[in-house]
Automatic annotation (TrEMBL):
Pfam families: Acyltransferase, MFS_1. Its main location: membrane. The lineage of its organism: Bacteria, Pseudomonadati, Pseudomonadota, Gammaproteobacteria, Cellvibrionales. It comes from the Bacteria. This is MFS transporter.
Length: 628
């Protein structure tokens, strides 16, 4: 079953060593960073501590702007497994410097090491996400990304907790520094050892010339990416998520202390709730998408982030501050479960939102510049996180908004950004409608879909039973389909948006619209020449009695102009469903059956010379069988 796939990856050498390596890297970075921040906060006066803490945050993120572009080029030019080993070996050296810096007590030395860790993370980022499409099958990409996101957030949380706890035991006569050093060096060493088991990942562009200028290189790749709106706006969506996540996570300590009246244990609880939510949402992606890259989950996640953010604002704004800052007092208070639930839901919907976007970016990026595109994504992620900090300063310090009010503002901003992105790339909304249809009114099974060519021009012919046939086929076949469809159906409100977004080709009889008829055939011919997968319902109309009608000769005319393979397909079980004509007219007469179990079946491709209308009719009839 599909939901087992992602966990089976943890038993595979193709994935497990990499997963351990990236988890330990995220953990180790945050052990050192948080230990340093806590030590600074408690050893210095408030004014000096705040300045150094802000400097530390800036020094860790600065390398992403300076080195990500070069890191992306290196990941495209060299074997990624070899690069990971070099990066992880560098982590051992940096870790040793970090331990020395912590023992020295020199904050300047410690901050310099933090900058080096930022450089190491900047070089690891593009390799981390670019290696997945090479190591995994396309059907495993969602599951792999889900595990990586889960591992990253769990590593960040664990490192933050461990670093903070041990930093509290670094006074004279205490052994916190020793244990910090042991953990930092141990995680770095085990990370390097696990990286040695990562299989080879050959370079896609070994002859690439490295451009060391981060500005011109970033501009070049960003310009290339912008030519493919789906990739560009996926990057914008990913970066916005990091802005949103940074806004929530940065404010949780202040929210806990100043709004809830809690202590450090409550901060840890709320951070853990968010991390658990991210893990659950990421894992849920695999089950909800059946192992495919299901973009319909992105709008669902965006809507959930907005609603959960609004709910958190309301719950936080109405919470009565605790008299005693303990977990027991918190759980005994009205609204505690609501706040905790909202934070878990933010994580769950965040996982549903981010995992398909990462998988989409990896899958659709050209193989030869995939790591460079991911490097641009990392730069924009860092930029958006800086903007997140500026938004916090603007609303909380300058405009004097409360933290619950700030949560409400960013939740509403999330809705605005989501609408903007989904307007620019309507495919997200289209996939959501298809996903909802195929997971509510219909239970869809597939058979023989592997016979559909993964690329190149081809033509699907299928029986026509209901007004949603095209949506169900588009949901079943993961390769984009351009539908040739009867113009009146194309123009149905709401469905028209979906068909237009999917670049459907409307057609009607030559007697009804001679000009439109010829225009449709020109579009069909051009689409096949461009390598598109097209689908036609050769009956020319919906069945009124559930039987397969004769196929019209238009199919032969298409193949005469552009000979391509033809894949016969059939929809089983749709007759009598809500959108079919059984029992009267669809939409006007309530049918006997609302819930339908259907099957989408694909037959063996037929070469163009043998693909006559009657032959294809007989093939589809056999595939459909008695079940209509």
């Amino acid at each position: 079953m599909a939901h087992r796939t992602q966990f089976q990856l943890l038993t595979s050498r193709r994935f497990l060593p990499f997963f351990i390596t990236q988890f330990l890297g995220a953990f180790n970075d945050n052990v050192y960073k948080n230990a340093l921040i806590v030590m600074i906060a408690f050893r210095l006066v408030e004014s000096e501590a705040n300045a150094l803490i802000n400097l530390a945050a800036g020094l860790f993120i600065l390398p992403f702007f300076l080195f990500s572009a070069s890191a992306g080029q290196l990941a495209d030019k060299f074997d990624k497994s070899r690069l990971i080993r070099l990066i992880k070996f560098g982590e051992i050296l940096i870790g040793a410097l970090g331990v020395g810096a912590l023992y020295s007590g020199s904050h300047i030395f410690c901050l310099a090491v933090l900058f080096l860790l930022g450089i190491q993370s900047a070089f690891f980022g593009p390799v981390k996400y670019a290696i997945l499409p090479q190591a995994l099958k396309r059907s495993e990409l969602v599951g792999g990304n889900a595990l990586v996101e889960m591992g990253t957030f769990v590593g960040i949380l664990a490192g933050t907790i461990v670093g903070g706890l041990l930093a509290g035991f670094t006074g004279q006569g205490e052994h916190g520094l020793f244990y910090l050093g042991l953990i930092i060096m141990g995680a770095a060493t085990f990370g390097y050892l696990s990286s040695r088991w990562i299989p080879q990942s050959p370079a896609p562009t070994p002859n690439l010339r490295i451009n060391p200028n981060p500005i011109t290189q970033t501009s070049k790749i960003l310009s290339t990416t912008a030519k493919t709106p789906s990739i560009f706006y996926a990057i914008i969506g990913i970066s916005w998520f990091w802005l949103l996540g940074a806004a929530y996570l940065t404010q949780i300590p202040s929210f806990t202390k100043n709004v809830l009246g809690g202590d450090e244990s409550l901060v840890t609880l709320l951070l853990s709730a968010f991390t658990i939510g991210i893990a659950l949402g990421s894992m849920l992606c695999e089950r909800l998408s059946d192992g495919h890259i299901e973009l319909g989950l992105v709008p669902l996640g965006a809507a959930g982030l907005t609603l959960a953010g609004i709910a958190l604002s309301i719950a936080g704004g109405s919470f009565t501050e605790l008299q005693h800052p303990t977990l027991t007092a918190f759980f005994s208070s009205d609204g505690a479960i609501a706040i905790l639930s909202c934070i878990v839901l933010l994580g769950i919907f965040g996982g549903l939102y981010i995992v398909p976007l990462y998988a989409m970016m990896q899958d659709r990026s050209p193989r030869e510049i995939r790591a460079q595109i991911i490097s641009v994504n990392n730069i924009l992620n860092a930029l958006f996180m800086v903007v997140s900090a500026l938004l916090g300063i603007l609303f909380l310090n300058i405009l004097d908004a409360t933290i619950p009010q700030f949560f409400l503002i960013i939740a509403l901003m999330n809705a605005a950004v989501a609408i903007f992105v989904f307007t620019k790339v309507p495919e997200f909304a289209m996939r959501l409608l298809i996903w909802m249809l195929s997971h509510t009114m219909y239970r869809v099974k597939h058979q023989g879909l592997e016979r559909i060519p993964a690329e190149g021009p081809a033509l699907i012919v299928c029986n026509h039973v209901s007004y949603v046939d095209a949506l169900l086929l588009a949901g079943a076949v993961r390769r984009p389909i351009r539908f040739i469809m009867y113009k009146p159906i194309y123009e149905i409100p709401v469905l028209h948006f979906i068909f237009r977004t999917g670049r459907a080709i409307p057609i009607c009889s030559k007697s009804q619209d001679p000009v439109g008829y010829e225009q449709a055939f020109r579009e069909i011919e051009q689409g096949l020449k461009n390598g598109d997968l097209l689908c036609i319902f050769p009956e020319g109309q919906l069945t009124k009695d559930g039987e397969l009608q004769p196929f019209k000769a238009g199919i032969e005319k298409i193949l005469e102009r552009t000979p391509v393979p033809v894949i016969p397909m059939a929809l089983r079980g749709l007759w009598g469903s809500f959108f079919s004509h059984k029992g009267g007219h669809a939409f006007n007469t309530w049918p006997k059956r609302f819930w339908s179990r259907i099957c989408v079946v694909a037959g063996t491709p037929v070469e163009a010379p043998e693909a006559k209308a009657q032959t294809l009719h007989d093939e589809v009839l056999e595939l459909r069988g008695k079940r209509r």
